[in-house]
Amino acid sequence: MRIIAGEFKGRRLAAVRGRVRPTSDKVREAIFSILGPQVLEARVLDLFAGTGALSLEALSRGARDAVLVEEHPAALRVLRENLATLELHERVMVLALPVSAAIRKLAGQARQFSLIFLDPPYGRGLALSTLAALPDSGLLRPEARVVAECHHREALPEQMGRLTLLQSRRYGDTHVAFYGIRKNLQEQELSG
Predict the structure, then answer these.
(1) Lowest-pLDDT range, 120-134, 158-172, 177-191?
(2) Given CB 3.0 to 4.6 Å as the disulfide criterion, which of 91, 115, 117, 121 pairs with 42?
(3) What are its E.C. numbers (predicted)?
């Protein structure tokens, strides 16, 4: 794995052996191509962060800062190794908690994010349940985008509370869905 573009372009990232399935370079490149300038100055929340590849790519491309949530011990070791390699400790906070507990903690701190990555282990329904927890969590800034990754056989809805599916793509076994906040999208259409 490597950083594809930006400040850390070409830098190698350590990977976790075994249980953790990182987002491939091809899929990461496609995600960031779709997001485009929305990454600049974004406040990123990376749920099920694994090695941190998604949020580290965002930081390389100009995101302001990131909170990475990961509870798997082997993934946490590799995640911290990747942060040390890129010297990003000042722009990153790591929460070694289950995602549901991290969402509650961050909501209690009134934290808000403009870009949320959601890449749970496949086949456990975690993409849907975590996506369902986000609309009423208070974590979404008005311009927020949520990028949810799951197995192509897992169904994600077109609407989830205030979140509206903007587009989805399939890359092999991977399904990537991009969501925005419905009210904000309607206002943009009316003013545009």
Answers:
(1) 177-191
(2) 115
(3) 2.1.1.171
